[in-house]
Amino acid sequence: MVDADQTYVIVGGGLAGAKAAETLRAEGFTGRVILICDERDHPYERPPLSKGYLLGKEERDSVFVHEPAWYARNDIELHLGQTVDAIDRAAKTVRFGDDGTLVHYDKLLLATGAEPRRLDIPGTDLAGVHHLRRLAHADRLKGVLAALGRDNGHIVIAGAGWIGLEVAAAAREYGAEVTVVEPEPTPLHGVLGPELGNVFAELHREHGVRFRFGVRLTEIVGQDGMVLAARTDDGDEHPAHDVLAAIGVAPRVGLAEAAGLELADRAQGGGIVVDARLRTSDPDIHAAGDVASFPHELFGTRLRVEHWANALNGGPAAARAMLGREVTYDRVPYFFSDQYDVGMEYSGWAPPGSYDEVVIRGDAGKRHFIAFWLKEGRVLAGMNVNVWDVTDAIQRLIREQRVVDPEALADPAVALESLSA
What we know:
By secondary structure, the chain is α/β, with parallel strands linked by helices. The chain is built from 10 helices and 26 strands. It has helices at 15-26, 47-50, 69-73, 135-151, 162-174, 189-206, 254-258, 308-322, 391-400, 406-410, and strands spanning 7-11, 32-37, 76-80, 84-88, 93-96, 102-104, 107-110, 114-116, 129-130, 154-158, 177-182, 210-213, 217-223, 226-232, 237-239, 242-245, 249-251, 272-273, 285-287, 292-296, 301-303, 334-339, 342-348, 357-363, 368-375, 378-385. The chain has a 5-stranded parallel beta sheet with strand order 3-2-1-7-19. Strands 9-16-10-11-12 form a 5-stranded parallel beta sheet, covered by helices on one side. A hairpin with a 4-residue loop joins strand 20 and strand 21 (301-303). It starts with 6 loop residues before the first strand and ends in an 11-residue tail after the last helix.
């Protein structure tokens, strides 16, 4: 039975943390709920930062998880612009970094998220070098892209992952010139493999984006603090007024590591090791969202998922586990992207090397299709591009792990639902 005198502390004011706080109250917890956010903005969702809000199609207020008054109305003690710099597991306290205040917890949730990886090259201290992770980053980048569009300016983007491509699409819609530098041979190589990456390369080329594959940035050249060009390791120099580093993120594990919590191997994506109930190696501390490395029986490995749906679902699952509810966190990974007139959804987990066949249903050339990644006839992942209302059917195929006839899978006349048990 949960005691009303208990205190549950959530470190991390992103989507996972905010939804965990919401779930604690929805599940009837009457004790103290303390939500600590190191940003001054109220908890918000990240997808609009590279999509609708960045494009000016969504208002700034639309990104917030709850309206500001919601926290006081639900008796959530929200600390904005505060950091936690230490956890004392023996005393069960967290310490605020600004003034050393100690706060007791009975249960603690770490939803500290991830931070952008930095380019380790000369010139990254110039004013025109950007990252995109926080709302403040999007505020700044939105103005930059608009100015580049007005002035026929040029942005170089390091990295052809989802963030890099979404910003490339936004930049072109503003009218900016775009060059994307990527060391892999295709965009999204680590997620889609070589078979599907070229679909997105062609999409962007049609909209005027220049790609340089198989090369890396070696230096950002500037004058008087401003960016002038970006150099690559093949000796080329690319004119640029701004540079975006979109080379991935790293889980923010410093707090957990200092507290002696078990961490996942970096080769497996790093993060804080949790069990199927999202408990860390300390039973009174849970972790959720981008920072959590959880076991997934379906894929036979640990996963650390950096996408919106994982935060949306992981925060509530951790909250229920903290309350003693029976929880097994085994959601099929899911994410989505919008670029120009192309929308896609991806379900599952099939990095290069894990599958032996890719099956296409529809017309990839017209960007109206579903792709399936198979291993020994079983569906590991599926991506629907400009085809809608099929996510449930795709996820059912992934979960059932049945051997599927590839010809039937490729045939649009065969209902996906008919391929499930």
